[in-house]
Structures are given as C-alpha cells and as structure tokens.
Amino acid sequence: MPPITSHTTLMALLAHPSRHSKSPILHNAAFQALGIDAVYLAFDVTPERLPDAVNAIRAFRMRGVNLSMPHKEAVVPLLNEVSAEVRLTGSVNTVVNDAGYLTGYSTDGPGWRRALADLGFDLRGQRVTILGAGGAGRELIAQAALQGAKSVDVFNRRSSPRWAHAQKLVEQVRARTGCDVSLRALEDRDALRRAIARSDLLTNATNVGMGAQEGQSCIPDVTYLHAGLLVTDAIYVPEETELLRQAREVGCRTQNGASLMLYQGAESFQLWTGQEMPLDKVRPLLGL
Q: pLDDT for 254-267, tens place per residue?
C-alpha cells in the first residue's frame, strides 16, 4: 500500500458495531490497484454521536462515507440533499462530500440486483419475500418493485419501532411502482409459511443471524422452505447464517451477503472516485 501523505483523502464506514466489516479491505485494495491516494477506515459511531461524525465529514474534508446499522435512516436529515431512491426509501448507505455539500445515495438495492445476477436470477416477474423493513431491507423492497417483481411480501416485527415506517414505505412503493407489495407481521407464522411457499426468492435483511443473534433464524424450521427457493442473506459474517444452513439442508440455492457487499461497495466507489472498482482484484479478498 502506498504511504499515507498529507494529501491522502479519507473515506470511512460509520456503523455500530463496525469491527466485523470487510469494507476497509475492499476499498483499500481498490485504491491501491488504481493508484488512488486515499484510505478507508471503519469507525464505530454510536447513535448519539452520529451528528458529530457527519460534521467531521465536512471538517476533515472526507470525500465520503458508507453508513450501516443503525445510521441509514437517522443520517437523512443531517445531509444537504438525497437521491431519488432515498426520497422513496428514506435510507442512505453512501454519502458524497462535494466541498462540504453532502449528498446521500442508496447503493444496497443496485448491489443486491447485481449479486442476484451472478446467480442468473432476474427480479422481473418473480415472487419475493423479504424479512426486515429497516436499513438495507427498505432498499431491497424498493429495488424488487422497481425491477418489476410480480409480488413482494415484506415481514417485519410488529413490535418494532420501525413498523409505522414500514407501513409508509410499502404504501409509497406500491403507489409509485404498481407492484403488489404487502407488509405482514413476522410473528404471523401462517402468513410467513404461505408467502415463502409461493416465493421464488427469500432474502433476510434483518440482523438475526449475526453478532449476539448468531445461530438464530427468522424462519422457525426447515418445513417453511422448499427446494425451488433461492435464499439469500444480507449478512456475511458469519459466512453461513442459520437461515442459510436451513436452506442448504432443504436443497435451496443460497448466497450470503458478501456479493451484495461487494457490489454496493463498487457502486459507492464509483460515486466517490468516478472510476469502476477493479472487481477482479478485490473479489478474492472476499472469497468470491
């Protein structure tokens, strides 16, 4: 890696927690491959310190940042402008700093679409079930509808403070796209079973399966799954969540969140640098 100088540009991940992230490996390898004088770090930022962290983007003249849980929605009012996708979803995962003017973007949706394309899966005309309607889940719901999915069944915990936001999102996506988008309580096991039974794709966009919830799954047991289902998880640490283990047991095709992370990162990289991420250089670092 080239030496850090007084001209080196700083970019970063703002998340809580952040130590599990492979984004620094991804972006620093890409900077090195293209000879870009920049460095990417991961900062653990608690919710109450997010305004300070956003001010630091301007103060330190950072080119931009990624955001992950729990900041994707909370950051929106702290920015100068957001993209059309963010106006629909209310969720930001990438910020670009242009001389102190901060613009928020959503790259999780396009990254998910590209990850699915690696498996030969096109969202158009498919029935999709998405677990979770916060953070990345919001972006995946919108992406599925915008790409022409036949239906999108969204499940979120009714007890979650995000429930009202999820209702509003589903209404907005349905009105804008005409897609058959519905929201149901994750606690409604019968509805969950019926939705998965008719689905082509099941995606987990919750944090169930990682961190303190490692070894857990939103799916009660393998009888909810069927062999013709593609099952993906936004989580990539651990590499195989309990949901993916369940799916593999049934014979489903599976994909963890590493590919999504790669492609959403590539979209962010282009927004910051104007260059394509050298995917051939960074894929092996993620075991892809």
A: 999 999 999 999 99
